[in-house]
Design goal:
It catalyses: L-isoleucine + 2-oxoglutarate = (S)-3-methyl-2-oxopentanoate + L-glutamate; L-valine + 2-oxoglutarate = 3-methyl-2-oxobutanoate + L-glutamate; L-leucine + 2-oxoglutarate = 4-methyl-2-oxopentanoate + L-glutamate. This protein is of the alpha+beta class. The protein has 7 helices and 17 strands. The mean pLDDT is 97. Bound molecules: 4'-deoxy-4'-aminopyridoxal-5'-phosphate.
Length: 323
C-alpha cells in the first residue's frame, strides 16, 4: 500500500514476491525512517487460521510511526492487509502442531530527496514466511550476556518504537554476546547502566520465592512487548502478584545467589516464553535457580501456547479468526 501527503493510503494490492525498485536517494536509505512488526498466524484443528492479538500489533505500529514522524497506517488497513495476505492461500500456514506463518508488516520512507525532514511518501508492505518451533527438541534455557559497554536506547530516544534503527544499534552487543557463548544480550538502562531493561529481541521477567513476579516498567526505553502484556495478565489471573519495577543487575545477581530469585524468563513473539539459565558478564557468571526450566515459567508458557494455538479456551478475546 502506498501513501502520499494529500492523497492518503492508496494502491493496495497483493502480488507475488519480487524486488521493490528503489531510488538511491530514497529517504529510508539515508535517514532510516523505517518501522516493522512481527506476529504469527496459526492453523486450528478445524483447518481454520487465527492470529494472536493483531490489533495490539496494529496499535504499536501506529505508535512507532508517530515516534518516527511517519504517516500512521490506520489499524483497520493494517488488519485488512494481514487478512488479505493469508486469504490468498491458507496452505501457507503450516498444519503441523509446531509450525506457524510468521508475518512481517513494515513501513518505510520512499520519498526521493536528501535532507533531514519527515518524508511525504511511504510504502507499507507485509511479507510472510512459514516457520517451525523456535526450539528444536524441547524448550531449552538460554544463556544471556549482560552488555556493560553498549546500551540499546537512551531516554527520549526511540526505544519504545519498533524501528530498524534500534536493532542496527544493538547488533554489536548481540555479536559480543555470541562471542561469549551466549544466546542473547541483556541491555541495562542508558542513564545509569544499572537497571535491567530487556534482551536483544525479548522482554524479561523474574519469579521470586514469595510467589511474586516482576518485570521492568515501560519507561520509554524498552519495547512494550505484546507477549509481555499477555504474560502479565495470565500471571495475575493465575494468582501471582505481578509488579512492574526497576530491577538492578546487582540485585539480580544477589537474589539469584541468595535463592530469593527462583526463575527468570524472556518472552516475545518468536520464542513465546524462554527460561533464562545462565547470566554472564565480563566478571563472571551465575545461574538462575538450578539453571533448568522452572515450573512457573513452563506453566505460563503452556497456557500461552495453548491459547495461541486454539487448544485452550481464550477468555481474553486475544485470538482473531481469519478463516
Ligand atoms: N523487545 C524487543 C527489543 C523485541 O524486538 C521484541 C520482539 N518484538 C520484544 C521485546 C517482544 O515483543 P513482542 O512480545 O511483541 O514480540
Amino acid at each position: 500500500v502506498r501513501y502520499a501527503d494529500g492523497k492518503g493510503w492508496y494502491d493496495a494490492r497483493v502480488e507475488a514476491r519480487a524486488p521493490i525498485p528503489m531510488d538511491p536517494a530514497s529517504a529510508v536509505l539515508h535517514y532510516a525512517q523505517e518501522i516493522f512488526e512481527g506476529l504469527k498466524a496459526y492453523r486450528t484443528a478445524d483447518g481454520g487460521v487465527t492470529m494472536f492479538r493483531p490489533d495490539a500489533n496494529a496499535a504499536r505500529f501506529r505508535a512507532s510511526a508517530q515516534r518516527l514522524a511517519m504517516a500512521p497506517v490506520p489499524p483497520r488497513l493494517f488488519l485488512d492487509a494481514l487478512d488479505a495476505l493469508i486469504k490468498v492461500d491458507r496452505e501457507w500456514v503450516p498444519t503441523d502442531a509446531e509450525g506457524s506463518l510468521y508475518l512481517r508488516p513494515f513501513q518505510y520512507a520512499s520519498e526521493v530527496f536528501l535532507g533531514v525532514k519527515p518524508s511525504s511518501e511511504y510504502l507499507f508492505v507485509v511479507i510472510a514466511s512459514p516457520v517451525g518451533n523456535y526450539f528444536k527438541g524441547g524448550v531449552q534455557p538460554v544463556s544471556v550476556w549482560v552488555s556493560r559497554e553498549y546500551t540499546r536506547a537512551a531516554p527520549g530516544g526511540t526505544g519504545a518504537a519498533k524501528c530498524g534503527g534500534n536493532y542496527a544499534a544493538s547488533l554489536v552487543a548481540q555479536a559480543e554476546a555470541m562471542e561469549h557463548g551466549c544466546d542473547q544480550v541483556v541491555f541495562l538502562d542508558a542513564a545509569q547502566q544499572r537497571y535491567v531493561e530487556e534482551l536483544g529481541g525479548m522482554n524479561v521477567f523474574f519469579v521470586f520465592d514469595d510467589g511474586s513476579i516482576a518485570t521492568p516498567p515501560l519507561t520509554g526505553t524498552i519495547l512494550p512487548g505484546i507477549t509481555r502484556e499477555s504474560v502479565m495478565r495470565l500471571a495475575a489471573d493465575r494468582g501471582y502478584k505481578v509488579r512492574e519495577e526497576l530491577y538492578s543487575y546487582d540485585q539480580w545477581r544477589a537474589d539469584a545467589e541468595s535463592g530469593r530469585l527462583r526463575e527468570a524468563f524472556a518472552c516475545g513473539t518468536a520464542a513465546v516464553i524462554t527460561p533464562i539459565g545462565t547470566v554472564r558478564d565480563h566478571d563472571g557468571e551465575f545461574t538462575v535457580g538450578d539453571g533448568k526450566a522452572g515450573e512457573v515459567t513452563m506453566g505460563l508458557r503452556e497456557q500461552l501456547v495453548t491459547i495461541q494455538r486454539g487448544t485452550a479456551p481464550d477468555p481474553y478475546g486475544w485470538v482473531h479468526r481469519v478463516l
